[in-house]
Every structure is written in C-alpha cells, then in structure tokens.
Amino acid sequence: MPRTETLSTSLDETAALARRLAGVLRPGDLVLLDGALGAGKTTLIRSLAEALGINPRAVASPTFVIAHEYSLPTGGRLVHVDAYRLGGQDPEELELLGWDHLTGPDVIVLIEWGERIAGLIVREHATITIEHVDEHSRRFTITLPGAWASRIAEPGTAEPDLAARKPTTCPITGQPVAPDAPHYPFSSERAKWADLYRWFSESYTVERPIEGADLDQGQ
Known about the structure:
The chain is of the alpha/beta class. The protein has 2 domains: 146 residues, Rossmann fold (3-Layer(aba) Sandwich), CATH 3.40.50.300; 57 residues, 2-Layer Sandwich (Erythroid Transcription Factor GATA-1, Chain A), CATH 3.30.50. Helix content is 23%, strand content 21%. The strands form 2 sheets. A 7-stranded mixed sheet has the order 1-7-6-2-5-4-3. Strands 8-9 form a two-stranded antiparallel sheet. A hairpin with a 5-residue loop joins strand 6 and strand 7. The two termini are 37 Å apart.
C-alpha cells in the first residue's frame, strides 16, 4: 500500500489537499483518520465534505453520538464516525454501531480515531495520519489501497479507450510504454503512485505563461 506525505501550512492548503483526496474517493470507500487530539482530523473531514458538495458548517465532531450522516449531492451518503469511545476489541461494538447500515456500497465512511478499531476492520481501506508540526502546520501521511491506483489520472483528463491509445513515454521514468501496458501511460504501478504523490504535494507547476489555446482545450 503506497504512502505519500504532504505538509500543510494553512487551512487553505488543507482544503486544497481535501479537494485532491475527494477526487480519488468513491462510494463504498472507507478512510481511517489517525492523529492526536487537536491534530485537525475534523478540520480535514469538514474540508472533504465541502469538496464533496456538503455544507461544511453542517459538519461537526460526532463524539457524543458516534456517527453523523450527510446526503451527497450525487447520491449516496457521507458517514462521519468518531471511534474515540470505542474499545476496538469486541466485534459486537461494530454491530451495536449499526456497521452494516453505515457502510453500504453507496456510502463514503470517514472514521476519526480509526486506530482504535483498525483491528476490527477487515475490508480494504485508506488511512490518513495527521501530525502536529507547529501552530499552523500539519503533516499528512496518506496510505491508499493499491487497488485505488486505477482511479489516478491527471486532473481534467479522461482515461482513453485502448483502441485510441498510442505508444508513449512514462512521464516519471522516461521509459517507453506500449498502448496495452497495464499502467498506461506509466511504466509501472510505482511510477503511477509517484505521479499521485506529485499532485498531492503540488510539485507540478506550469513553466510557461498560460495561453488562450490552453483554456480552449477544455471547451
């Protein structure tokens, strides 16, 4: 399960990270969030909810009720769970929580204090660990399941049909890539994850002024 790390030094940068994460999430996904008290777990979830089309002012920590549910504009639900008061040793805790209802195929589940119940989770999931660096900075370590790699594409582009593909060069390794390569247009899964890391860490930049032709391509 490849990992990426990124440093946020402001709420705006955290919101930008949340938008990139929201672009990867799909209905049925489960994400465990770890971090010390006050690290910013609820802040990230609020930004994720906003990126998914939910009013962020409606999102609050569910410490006392354990779980909150929100309807997604595209259909389905976002479920926000706080596992702080769960022991994480007895599988019956999940049954009492109504786990089957909360984790349906149309639901994106975000769990704060996910490490407390990680031992009870048998399904594939992502983890986000948040570390407090200073008053304004947080370090995010993001681990995504390998199966999610197929969702990774350059923002604003669609995956081409195999018949329309042409031989290309991997943008990460510089190696030639055949049209039927399993990780096209990358040479390997590692290269694909390296590309994702660059998007998360905002390493990509435009090295020339944006021209009118660039904007016309999206029309």
